[in-house]
Amino acid sequence: xxxxxxxxxxxxxxxxxxxxxxxxxxxxxxxxxxxxxxxxxxxxxxxxxxxxxxxxxxxxxxxxxxxxxxxxxxxxxxxxxxxxxxxxxxxxxxxxxxxxxxxxxxxxxxxxxxxxxxxxxx
Length: 122
Hints:
The protein is mainly beta. Helices cover 0% and strands 31% of the residues. It is built from no helices and eight strands. The strands form two sheets. The protein has a six-stranded antiparallel beta sheet with strand order 6-7-1-4-5-8, with no helix packed on it. It has a two-stranded antiparallel ribbon with strand order 2-3. β2 and β3 form a beta hairpin. The radius of gyration is 21 Å and the shape is globular. The termini are far apart.
């Protein structure tokens, strides 16, 4: 009787090690978003310069939806979403930073629609 097993030890293979990008499927009601680069300093409407290091309490953040799960109804890929930065999970994929949100944690969606409007839904 011959054996079909190898004497070589089994090793776990890292799929990202070969440099190929793997497709990502987002599940359930999750939305994968990517936040733009840090804007740094900004000005208030009154013209006051606010440094990038200033902490603003309860400030919501805008990000672009990169992928959406099958149960997401009001967000499409490419939409810009408004969310609370505290209600998120961070993930790094191939050196890029992403956030995973639940659809219920998204406060608003801004998108260009066929009618040409901004598509801001609150």
